[in-house]
Amino acid sequence: MFDLICLGNVTLDDVILPQGQVRSGCFGGDAIYAVLGGQLWSDGVRFVAPTGRDFPETMTEALRSSGLDCAGMPIRDLPVIRNKVHYKADGQRHWTLLSDPDNFFPLSPAPADIPKQFLNSKAFLI
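Structure (tokenized):
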């Protein structure tokens, strides 16, 4: 049994910082940041977040090498969700979805995506 299962999305984000620097292909998505935050308090935190067929294997390996369990990251036969995020100096953010909006729901977790070993966990964050 795990303490927390975080369900959400994994995206690739092109980030524009307030000073104009551009960081392309950054980790994005609520599931990644939720599981990383949860792991500050417990090793018993996992995530469920489908991704697209073109999600870079190097990024999946980076997740694994940081200690994350990727068992809840099924690959769908769709392109990964991509966003452009423009951060302003005053703290505002402007998001632009670069992907087909019709792919967002199919790239979101469904009950069947939850690995069997996650089902008896103490809590789920959606």
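Helices lie at 30-38, 57-65. The mean pLDDT is 95.
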